[in-house]
Structures are given as C-alpha cells and as structure tokens.
Amino acid sequence: MLKMDPKLATMSGKTDILKLIFTYWLGLLPYVHFEREAFLLPYMTRDFIKMKKNERKEAKSWAERAFLTFYIYFGQLANITMNPCLEHL
C-alpha cells in the first residue's frame, strides 16, 4: 500500500470543485466539510477563454463543442459570482 506524506496538501478533483461552487451559490458552503486542502478553481482569464474558443472551433464532434461552450460560459459565471468566495478562502 502506498503511504502518503502528511506534509503534502491534497488537491481537489472536479466533483469537489462543482460541490464547492454549487454549495456556495446555494448558501450551504459553511455547512459542508471538504477533505481536501487545496482547490484549483476554473478561473478564466482572457487568454484562457481565447484558447478554449480555439479548441471549440477545432472540435470534431458536436458533443465536444457543446461541452466547451458550456465550460466557457460556466467558468465565466463562476468567476463573476465566486470572487467573494475566493477572497474568503
């Protein structure tokens, strides 16, 4: 069995990030416990948005284009509404 170094911070995954965002929007964040110590939030800069839009143009399937469109707009909405949360964290 692999032993983890207790000095290292554990990173969150996609489900933890979605849980953080939705519990913040619903006002339930103070009541939710997270096992992780570090969060990598989908913070959208202008360059990152341009990169994702280029990926969307090059996408081969309809599903991939739809997912990237959702990701771009969801990330921008999360940026606008999550700034107080980020300052708090």
Summarize the structure.
This protein has 89 residues and is mostly helical.
Keywords:
single chain, 89 residues, mainly alpha, 3 helices
Number of helices: 3
Separation of the first and last Cα atoms: 33 Å
Largest sheet: none
Q: Give the total of beta strands.
A: 0
Number of domains: 2
Shape: globular
Proportion of residues in β-strands: under 5%
Helix content: 55-70%
The whole-number mean of residue pLDDT values reads 79
What would your notes on this structure say?
It is a single chain. Helix content is 60%, strand content 0%. The relative contact order is 0.15. It has three helices and no strands. It folds into two domains: 10-40, no CATH class; 43-89, no CATH class.
Topology, pairings included?
Blueprint: H1 14-26, H2 46-58, H3 62-88
Helix pairs in contact: 2-3
